[in-house]
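Standup notes
- DV: blocked on the single-chain target, sequence here:
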Amino acid sequence: MQYTTKKIRKMFLDFFKENNHKIIESSSLIPQKNSNLLFTNAGMNQFQNIFLGKEKYQFQKVATVQKCLRTGGKHNDLEQVGYSQYHHTFFEMLGNFSFGDYFKKEAILYAWKLLTDRNWFNLPKEKILVTVYQDDNESYNIWKNLIGLSVENIILIGNTPNNPYVSDNFWQMGETGPCGPCTEIFFKKSNDIFKISHLKDKKKYIEIWNIVFIQFNRINQNKIIPLPIFSVDTGMGLERIASILQNVNSNYEIDIFKELKKSILKINNLKKIKHTKSLNVISDHIRASVFIIQENILPDNEHRGYVLRRIIRRALRHGEKLGIKNPFFYKIVPDVIKCIKIFGEKIRFQQNNIKNILKKEELQFTKTLQTGLKLLKSEIKKIKNHQLDGKTVFYLYDTIGFPIDLTQDICKEYQINININELKNEINKKKRQSKQNKNKIKNLPNVIQNTYTSTFKGYNHNKITCIVKQIFVNQQAVNKILPEEKGIIILDRSPFYGESGGQIGDSGIIYNSKSLFHVQNTQNYATTIIHIGQIKIGSLEINDLVTAHIDEKKRKLIQNNHSATHLLQHALNKILKKNIIQKGSYISEKYLRFDFSYNQEISIKEIFCIEKLINKNIQKNINICDDHLNFEEAKNQGYIFFQNKTYNSIVRTLKIGNISKELCKGTHAHNTGNIGLFKIIYEKSISRGIRRIEAVTGKKALKHIYNQYKKNININKILKSNHESIIPKIKKLIINYKNLEQSNKQLNKNIIAIQTKELINKIIQIKKINFLNSEIKIKDRKLLKNMIDQLKNKIHTGIIILFYKKISKNIFMVGVTNNLTNIIQSNKIIEIIKKYANGSGGGKAEIAECITENINNLDQLINYIKKWIELKI
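- DV (later): unblocked, structure below
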């Protein structure tokens, strides 16, 4: 019989239908409102209240094929995908349930019949092994006496030490609530003599079905009491049982994944695949993405949207590993939908919407991925102790936008650890800084009492005479600020602009004939202008007459950048032909930043057109006029304003000729000619549907252009080219580099082949197991790993220790063939070397490496390792 996934699913439901179970549809991937789960992760989720006794279900016996997603919390399989042959993010859970009807005997008989009967799955009985909770004598006797399973194939599983009812075979919904023993069914894939450790080895045994007997209510850690109604909850992964019935070695080799992987290869015109794990990841993640979006969830930075975004980005990273250069992920959607007709026609009608959402997310993340990977790989090459520092991880995340979990995933591939403590420190430092900046003004009401209203005079005056009204030092109101003290000064009126509307606060000086206070920053609180700084000369007292003088040079630069921001918004609307909505801005004397709504990439040609239009308006030297109008009147006249902001009845308006009309409190240039020159230095997407532009004006723009020109001149000198020939010359260099790279690869292959031949002759036997240790001439970590892989293929069974010297260090790499890793592991041998020679490093069971101090007595170390191997064998 040919067991397609579709047929297996149908057979399961037909079997339980014949046994009087009501077949019900899968519940949503989004759990019920009172659940603390992000996603449905098991077939029993929709029945939680029934198990708890809060509800009575209309049917006592049901069966389902439940959509499940495991990407967080207790059941987080996301990081296993790509490293395991049997884990998925999205999967289908086959389940049958009894609510106060049948119990242990019937549940076990149902499972046994479906799995082994000739008319159903027809699995060989001798290949079945089960685990039972140590105190569940009833289940043990059913398997032994009623089913007739040999005692060797019934494994009793106990509690973890000092933890009653904490066991792999005692299921519980949470720290309290419904719980009970379970019996797990395993399928034996190898002919080895059984050992308890084999249960964890998916090459030997695979868990296919878990039958939970919900019979207790957990009151606390040490106390459980019987429930009034006993229930049964079972779960069998469709993909796992399919791998067994289709006689393949991995879930990713079953029919539905074969089709998906063929599709991925065809779409991207791929033939030879080195990274089959990456193909598995993509085929898994596209299924998960389709089902999550089908639940009306969009990629986001929090909650369920973040899970979706993380899955998509991880898939794109593995696309990059396969050498895929163009957007591809969204193109697989139709093939996924072909495989999932069981879940209704609704998902088919959402196909185009799902594709568009994935396409936008993919385009948005591609640049970040490329930049981040380039920087990360560069840092990985520099690593000497198998550890990436937390500062680099945080920089990639905070500055580049490269997700931390993606960095962790890549480091895992390279067997590199991340300095988690350092990373946590960086994250906490950033949080503290953000909190300080955020609360700087929020905390001022606690400091400022009897707040004065300060009149702002800075639109027309850079310097005015005024009176000191309040002084604060160390959060306390004082009458006098002394020499070198830091504090806050409040004046009756001020030319200093307090930070608001994206424009930074002014700096400058407050002084009289005897004193000088340096204003480092200016903030607003309610109607008060707060001057933050330090007394540099003399002292100041309340009611002193002073002169307040802003830093005029800095103010002019800020004004020019603020006016340029208004020109930018006009140009964006004109060139992109969209109703651009401002989402944030930052205006300082150094540069301007403008965030706006736009869900497409902006081309280089469009950037050029935006710059051209802005500079054209600068050259026109258009007058910039401000006025005060009634808010309703300003609205009627078409002035732009923030829809979600509350305005006073009288508002300040700003008009630049007939091209820009906005409500704005900020300070501005008198005319556009003051701006001088405008140059965009940075443009990217910062979140879904939001883009950011950074730009410079005036001398800074000129300096940026000069620096770019200077770089071009230097490149021309290095390449011995001119402006016309530079591009063809660079292209030629790239081709030459690729040819050299190819030649180098072939040369390295030849070197490895020659050295491998020589090393084969050095193999000795330790209790009939091949053992090789040798110093080699190759001084490259990647080549060393390739050599070990080739040696493993040749010796089939054995242990390899290779090393090379680098200055005063030794670099060791250990390889153990897969058929030996159950008794001897590479990382254990590396631990011995590290302890002996003060080294650092690590790895996995099949391959590991370390770097050590120079070893004088190498023979002594190797002899110790040989004896250790003998004892292990």
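- Follow-up: The mean pLDDT is 87.
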